[in-house]
Specification:
about 400 residues, mainly alpha, MFS_assoc_dom, Growth Hormone, Chain: A
Length: about 400
């Protein structure tokens, strides 16, 4: 009996620490994606209300993705070198929020472009750094990542539905004021994350990162995700405007955006079962095919609410499944030493470059033809992604957590 008491105390302490880490790590995901949930569906409507053209809207929306090309690499390198990722996340949250205040000066197109570039340069530094903080904090308990990450989806849903309801009652030009509490939530949540002991890493062996990046399967992985985000350019930039053209109100628009993320949450909750039954290659190919079907349905069947609901449920494939396998690829291929830079490359080359290119291309298609044409273009990019994945995608190595 005496020997059993210490075991109980140790187990309880371990459980309490696990719960504490869970809630501390979950908070920033909630607020970060709550802000994203207010920006992606409604910022294009705000810009349209300000009188900007479709090409100007596409350019301004592209900045949200464009700075991901540079910012995550710069901040990821600093995080890997200094080991001060939590402090860098706090810095990005504060300075990014201050930069956003330039919106209230109501600048013209070029002034707003400068504000958006400055704000997103610091804001886009947060998530790639935080993904590393989360995965290192979990260590071998990486199966809990999905449960923590789903709070980002909860924040997105709460925000997109709540802001949509509010904007049905107040003018859309008040959107910047609605965003301010979300910025405050991001800043406060960064203060709850415990700072690491700074442990800067020694320089990597010469050429090791280059060897990883030039691996054929890694090239296929990045190309597949680049085209995936190109296809999402039409969705993130013009889906709300597309729905408005078909007579959907802002609350209905918000609920449809929320439905997609709700489907994503459902997938995250059962993703471990999916991984047991299928390989990452099989999951990737199926998800890419379903994403192609989704864009075709939005292009041609928007007036049919039931079919539009089904299309939005396919967000579980086009984001949830493909993001889940991408986390495994980054962990497996880039390992412990290059994890931060791998995460930054993933964010920059796919969400950043792919998202920006997709926004601009969709802007030309909408300006010259229609919103339907933009979604057909998205479907075409998924055909190319399927071909690349079929020919070049392989299973990632098993990640090493011993260091």
């Amino acid at each position: 009996m005496p020997t059993s008491l210490p075991r109980r105390r140790t187990s309880k302490t371990g459980n309490n620490r696990s719960v504490d880490i869970y809630w501390r790590l979950s908070g920033l995901y909630f607020w970060f994606f709550a802000l994203l949930g207010a920006l992606l569906p409604y910022w294009s409507l705000y810009l349209q209300d300000r009188g900007f053209s479709y090409l100007q809207i596409a350019t301004l929306m592209a900045t949200i993705q464009l700075t991901k090309v540079v910012a995550p690499s710069v901040w990821g390198w600093l995080g890997d070198r200094t080991g001060q990722r939590v402090r860098l996340v706090r810095l990005g949250a504060v300075i990014g929020s201050v930069c956003f205040l330039g919106v209230f000066l109501e600048p013209g197109f070029y002034g707003l472009l400068l504000v958006m570039l400055a704000f997103t340069f610091f804001w886009n530094a947060i998530l790639p750094l935080y993904e590393v903080i989360t995965l290192q904090g979990l260590g071998r308990r990486r199966e809990k990542y999905g449960r923590i990450r789903l709070w980002g989806s909860v924040g997105f849903i709460a925000s997109v539905a709540g802001v949509g309801a509010v904007l049905d009652w107040v003018p859309v030009d008040l959107l910047p004021w609605i965003l301010l509490p979300l910025f405050a939530g991001i800043i406060l949540s960064t203060l709850l994350v415990r700072a690491e002991n700074p442990q800067p890493k020694p320089p990597a062996p010469a050429g090791s990162l280059k060897a990883i990046v030039l691996h054929s399967s890694v090239i296929a992985f990045f190309a597949m995700n680049f085209l995936l985000q190109v296809s999402h350019g039409a969705y993130y930039t013009f889906f709300s405007i597309h729905l408005e053209q078909y007579g959907y109100g802002k609350l209905a628009t918000g609920l449809l955006w929320s439905l997609g993320v709700l489907a994503e949450i459902g997938l995250f909750l059962v993703m471990h079962h999916v991984f047991r039954r299928f390989t990452v290659r099989q999951i990737a190919l199926a998800a890419l095919a379903l994403t192609m079907v989704r864009w075709v349905m939005i292009a041609e069947l928007t007036e049919h609410l039931v079919l539009l609901v089904i299309a939005q449920c396919l967000h579980a494939a086009s984001y949830g499944a493909l993001h889940a396998i991408s986390v495994q690829y980054i962990q497996g291929f880039f390992g412990h030493h290059h994890h931060g830079q791998g995460q930054a490359l993933y964010s920059g080359l796919t969400f950043g470059a792919g998202g920006a290119v997709g926004s601009w291309l969709s802007g030309f298609l909408v300006d010259g033809i229609s919103t339907e044409a933009a979604f057909w273009g998205a479907a075409l990019s998924m055909v190319l992604a399927l071909i690349i994945a079929w020919r070049g995608l392989q299973a990632p190595p098993t990640p090493d957590f011993d260091h």
